[in-house]
Design goal:
394 residues, alpha+beta, SH3 type barrels, Immunoglobulin-like, Ribosomal Protein S8, Chain: A, domain 1, 3 domains, 6-stranded antiparallel β-sheet, 5-stranded antiparallel β-sheet, 19 strands, 25% helix, 29% strand, flat
């Protein structure tokens, strides 16, 4: 028996979800009427998934799922209020305490259908327990890795292949009461399609849950899962095809190379004859050097100093105008930011100094226009005052 298994009491008809393993002989079960009890393992039996497929859900199970969804929304709203974030009002009034949520009327607008994509879905196993799933609502197979980040430390959790139009088993279980302590999730996605002529780039996504966005992400009928879930899209930017070098592209095509024209053959024969008779033209004195291989992209350091003496430690900047110095600093900033994005860094700090605020204003203007920036703010005020900016990358 594992956490999240649906079980039935042998002494009655009650069903529930295992929320904790208390000992080798004792587990905690959340009964469908919204309370938890300790139960001996020998007094419960796991409800097989085939039973639900064959006989359908019982009325008690359907009522329990509706109650779990209502309770989950209420707890998410409380978490949003605790975090000080305003949440959007639901379309329908909440049901009174002890009553089932009122069904939606037929004339009310239904939510927009979920578009094709790859999603993280959190479904209720009980009013307080959520299960994590990856949902592949595309026509391609996806190779994925899943990890979590706690206190700036990464821990790998899962790596699998997810077929098109399918979902994973539960990848983990989280309690709503621990919402403030949920880790950030790091997901890597690599789309793949058999016999496709395209190769695709790797997608990286970092999810840090906030109460307001979590509360408004609920979808009543998630594709593939066919049930209600909190839904977060992982591929807002679809994976772009990888551009192959021209030489490799030619090797992959089956079209034979064009045959040389007769005039080309004649010219080749004339050149060979001239070389054999010693009448060939002299070779050029200098040969162009072979191109140097491209240097590997190196991630910048976590803190980047944009002061002139840090950018040009060897000197040689005497007599530069203020506009020339500003241009030099902005070029260094843009180069560092592009390398940070290309190497999938999560955040970076730019030290620009306070001064008259010109460099800080220009940096903030550029950051506000960049769609790959999650947010930016003044950093380490106790050390730099307003002389440093923290940039959080998507």
């Amino acid at each position: 028996m594992n956490i999240g298994d649906r079980v039935r009491l042998l002494t009655g008809r009650e069903e529930g979800i295992i929320t904790r393993l208390l000992s080798d002989e004792l587990v905690e079960v959340a009964i469908d009427n919204d309370f938890t009890i300790p139960v001996l393992r020998r007094e419960i039996v796991v409800v097989a998934a085939e039973e639900t497929k064959a006989f359908g859900k019982s009325a008690a199970s359907v009522a329990a799922e509706k109650k779990a969804a209502a309770s989950g929304a209420e707890m998410a709203a409380k978490a949003a209020k605790k975090a000080g974030v305003a949440t959007e009002a639901p379309a329908a009034k909440p049901a009174a305490s002890g009553e089932s949520p009122a069904p939606l009327k037929a004339d009310k607008a239904q939510p927009a259908p979920v578009q094709k994509g790859i999603y993280l879905a959190l479904t209720h196993q009980s009013p307080e327990l959520l299960a994590l799933h990856l949902v592949n609502h595309t026509d391609r197979t996806v190779l994925f890795t899943l990890g979590e980040e706690k206190r700036e430390k990464y821990r790998a959790l899962k790596a699998e292949k997810l077929e098109a139009k399918s979902a994973t088993e539960a990848l983990g279980h989280w309690h709503l009461k621990d919402f403030d302590q949920w880790p950030a999730l790091l997901v890597q996605l690599l789309p793949f399609q058999f016999n496709s002529p395209d190769a695709f780039e790797l997608l990286n996504k970092r999810l840090q849950f906030k109460a307001a966005s979590f509360y408004t992400s609920r979808q009543p009928n998630v594709p593939v899962l066919q049930r209600e879930a909190y839904l977060f899209q992982l591929d807002e930017k679809p994976a772009a095809p990888v551009a192959l070098p021209a030489a490799e592209t030619e090797q992959q095509t089956d079209t034979p190379a064009p045959k040389p024209k007769p005039s080309d053959k004649q010219q080749l024969a004339d050149k060979l004859k001239a070389q054999l008779t010693g009448n060939a033209p002299a070779k050029p004195a200098a040969v162009a050097p072979a191109p140097q291989p491209a240097k590997a992209l190196v991630a910048p350091s976590h803190e980047v100093d944009l002061h002139l003496e840090a950018l040009q430690p060897e000197g040689g900047t005497d007599g530069l105008s203020n506009s020339a110095i500003l241009k030099l600093q902005l070029e260094a900033f843009e180069d560092t930011l592009s390398r940070a994005l290309a190497t999938s860094m999560h955040e970076i700090v730019f030290i620009h100094g306070s001064g008259n605020g010109t460099l800080r204003k220009e940096l903030h203007k550029l950051l506000s226009r960049n769609r790959d920036i999650k947010f930016f703010e003044d950093s380490m005020k106790e050390k730099f005052g307003y002389g440093a900016t923290l940039v959080r990358l998507k």
